[in-house]
Amino acid sequence: MLVPVKWLREYTDVTLPAQEWVDGMVLSGTNLETVDYWDKEIENVVVGQILKIEAHPDAAKLVVCQVNVGKDAPVQIVTGAANMKEGDKVVVALDGARVPGPLHGKTKTPGGDVITAGKLRGVESAGMMCGCSELGFPDKIVPVRDKDGLWILDDECFVPGTPIVQALGIDEPTVDFEITPNRPDCLSMLGIARESAATFKTELRYPETECKNVAPEKSEDYIQVEIRRPDLCPRYCARVIKDIRIAQSPWWMQRSLMLAGMRPINNIVDITNYVMLEYGQPLHAFDIRTVKGGKIIVDTAKAGDKFTTLDNVERELSDTTLMINDTEGPLAIAGIMGGLDSEIRPDTTMVLVESANFNGDSVRSSSKKLNHRTEASGRFEKGIDPNLAKDACDRFCYLVEALGAGTVLTGDVDCYPNPKLPVVTKARVSRINKVIGIDLSAEQMIEYLNGLEIRVQQQGDTLICTAPTVRMDLNIEEDYIEEVARMFGYDKLPKTLPMGRSQGGLNERQRFKNLAKDTLRALGCSEVMTYSFVSPKTADKVNEREKSYFRQFVKLINPLGEDTSVMRTMILPNMLEVIYTNMSRKNPQVRFFELGNTFIDLPNTKEPGLPIEKDALCVAMYGPNETFYTLKGVIEQLLSTLGIQNVWYRTEKFDKRFHPGRCAAVEHDSRQLAVIGQVHPDVAAGYGLDQPVYAAEIDFEMLWETKKEAVRYTPLPKFPAMTRDFAMVVKEEIEVGKLEYVIRQAAGELLENVKLFDVYRGKNIEAGKKSVAFSLSYRAADRTLKDTEVSEINTKVLAALKETFEAVLREM
After folding, report:
1. Mind giving me the DSSP string for 325-359?
2. For 121, which DSSP code?
């Protein structure tokens, strides 16, 4: 919110130097962006009046002007501008002047540009006549009439020779405040003035709104209002003004608008913008000739309707877009922009001024669908008090009358079916003091709150607070605690250490997560963090099955765009984006992991009405030394460290995210913990990956549920182990993991370890079969095993393999 200090003084006294005032506002809770000093780089620039214009003797596009700059004799200036005439007052930079710039055709110079006298095509020129840009005003706020030439100064108050800073009244700064979303009331001069008056204990002065000479005709004789969607338009106030005279606004109004970041256009449009900045209530003026049937109808559009806005762009409307219509068709998009056909024209003689309140969510939705935001829509989106509508409408009429721009008709048409009432809240004096850590009296608190226009009644320890309706952020006791704290002064609050009897620490689940992260880091993996908002197309990019629960996305109501319109159900797509970034930057080898939340839109038995939210872990790697087996080794070590034993690996052929021949599901007690493997070549190609990538998508919730409750110490064995080696010939399609599972089941508790040490295909092995060799280690904790005992167990193992897989013992 740009706040010109000179304009602010109309509503409250600002007696401190600008920087001290700004510091006080910051300490009371109004955040600062910048402070701009418009006069900082302007020297020796004055008001001039053109006395005579002659053609340049040697240049068709130049003219020679004699200009009165308040000296004994006029000065001669050569210019290429064409928008001036004799008698016009202009801005003149004399010899040696300094202007902020940038000068035409050049870039801005730090400290400003120096103007020197010289010759232009052989003719002496004692300076330069300036446009707005040479004085540092951005193009977007330059008056429409002067944007392509010299700055013509219309007001009679401009006296030749007067320093331009003094003449324009730009000797005070403009302060840019950062307004937080909970304080839309501060998106106005009155809102900032209210904060300033409360902070510095000065008087708050409201603008004059009562017209002195209204016409006997009534506004209701010309216009009627019907609100068909009161849920989207709580209030619509309208007044009619006749005998409109379109002209330039006086300089004081143009200056206020320009310093507040808006371009002056003409008196009627400027007054609507001036009142919007003053009250925070957007207004719109219609040429009443275009309002067919003398009736305003507020209703939503029909899907597919077309409407051309003021910027001459035809826009397609949806059935949720609120429109301002007459009896024959649309006039404006409510809260966003008016229509081209109903705009104020040079021959307009009667206008209808609209001061309405529109639902912020509706305006935001329509603005996004139309891809068009305006100063008005931004304010409606944040929320506006409907009780401002009539005051703003009356203020507009007062200014029209004061500027002689028209004659105001009697009364208004105010459709306000459900008036908004002030919110009454109870706040306890003792509670306020306890939370803030101070000891203020109730009287002091009441004084602070009254300064913010909050009415207070005291009943013992309780303050019954009635907030003005513009303060939509004051609803609960804690809100009033904050008000007292900031009016007391955050810088004055006592500094105390927090008190507590408990010591903070990590819970068991947090320690488990940290153990997983520490283990992966120890294994050479770097942690990454990616956004939870993703595109719904990620499921297609990784070849996820059509009916997979990974496609049950949680959709955002107001996404920034399609690429961030849903919440992720898995981490793999995000990880592949990170992998691509590293590959494209020639990083030869990486190991990454991310442990984060995923969100699935399925019924939640633990928290009904909410989607399922759970932790997931993704590990990915690529490089010349990375294979499926290096990834498997990382996962095995991770599971072992987390206390998850007796897992086995099953070939996974149906997960299309991974290579069908290099993919495995990791299972424990028939529950799938993870899928690991090489990323499918089609998926890799879709992400622009030009070398194999190995990844694991792990259900971290399942790891948490599967982990051992406690890690127990086991002493070193006292008794020797006995080993048995054997090789079995089995069918080619039988997986080693299944063989190992049967071995463990048949061997029982005395089996300490199973190790695969050879797989052979070739001579003496029948086609379609393979030889698989294992080394089995047996040990008892309380005795030395006998050879006969181990042989008996080993025989059972061989029998189980033969029965289950038709395995045949291979002769060595």
Report:
1. E-SSSEEEETTTEEBGGGS--TT---EEEEEEE--
2. T
ω into 720 cis (within 30 of 0):
no
- Rounded to the nearest angstrom, the gap between the alpha carbon of residue 196 and the centroid of all alpha carbons in its chain is 28
Give dist(CA 412, CA 639) in Å, integer.
75
The 10 Å CB-count burial string (b at 16+, else e) for 531-559 is ebebbeebbebbebeeeeebbbbbeeeee
* Token couple for 47: 């008001």
Q: How far apart are CA 701 and CA 672, in angstroms?
A: 11
Residue type, 398: Y
The amino acid at residue 582 is N
User: Please, what's the b/e burial string for 53-89 (b: 16 or more CB within 10 A of its CB; e: otherwise)?
Assistant: beebeeeeebbbbbbbbeeeebbbbbbebeebeeebb
Q: How many CB atoms lie within 10 A of CB 206?
A: 12
- CB crowding 280-310: b at 16 or more within 10 Å, else e: bbbbbbbbbebbeeeebbbbbbeeebebebb
Strands, E, within 162-256: which ranges? 174-178, 215-218, 224-227, 235-242
Q: State the Cα torsion 75-79-85-86 to the nearest 10°.
A: 20
pLDDT tens for 422-473 read 999 999 999 999 999 999 999 999 999 999 999 999 999 999 999 999 999 9
Q: Which of 291, 272, 415 is nearest to 357 (CA)?
A: 415
**N- to C-terminal Cα distance for the chain?**
88
The count of other CB atoms within 10 Å of the CB of residue 599 is: 18
Return the amino acid letter for 633: G
What's the mean pLDDT when you consider all of the chain? 92
Distance CA(457)–CA(528), nearest Å, equals 55
Tell me if the pTM is above 0.70. no
3-state DSSP assignment of residue 486: helix
**Predicted confidence (pLDDT) at residue 319 exceeds the cutoff of 90:** yes
- Give me the percent of the chain exceeding a pLDDT of 70: 98
Q: Residue 711: what pLDDT?
A: 66
Q: How far is CA 227 from CA 266, 353, 599, in A?
A: 30, 16, 41
Residue 718 burial (10 A CB sphere; 0-12, 13-18, 19+): exposed
φ and ψ of 394, to 5 deg = -65, -35
Q: Averaged over 237-245, what is the pLDDT?
A: 96
Burial of residue 686, with CB atoms counted within 10 A of its CB: 0-12 exposed, 13-18 middle, 19 or more buried: middle
Cβ neighbours, 10 Å, residue 210? 10
With 0-12 CB in 10 A as exposed, 13-18 as middle and 19+ as buried, what is 802?
middle
CB 33 within 8 A of CB 186: no
Q: Are residues 164 and 95 in contact, defined by beta-carbon separation less than 8 angstroms?
A: no
Q: How many Å separate Cα 32 from the centre of its chain?
A: 19
Q: Which two tokens stand for residue 271?
A: 């007054």
Comparing C-alpha atoms, which of 447, 626, 640, 436 is closest to residue 524? Answer: 626
- With cut-offs at 50, 70 and 90, classify the pLDDT of residue 111: low
Number of neighbouring beta carbons within 10 Å of residue 31: 11
- Other C-beta atoms within 10 Å of 372: how many? 16
Give the span between the Cα atoms of 403 and 268, in whole angstroms: 10
3-state helix, strand, coil in the chain (%, to 5): 30, 30, 40
Burial of 43: CB neighbours in 10 Å, binned 0-12, 13-18, 19+? middle
Question: In terms of Cα–Cα distance, which of 156, 107, 111, 149 is closest to 130?
Answer: 149
What gap in Å lies between CA 297 and CA 226, rounded to an integer? 5
How distant, in Å, are the alpha carbons of 154, 158, 268, 595, 695 from that of 250? 8, 12, 12, 63, 69
Q: What Å distances lie between residue 116 and 81, 99, 724, 799, CA to CA?
A: 18, 11, 102, 107
Check if the beta carbon of residue 242 is closer than 8 Å to that of residue 407: yes
Residue 541 CA to residue 597 CA, distance in Å, equals: 20
Mean pLDDT of 256-264: 94
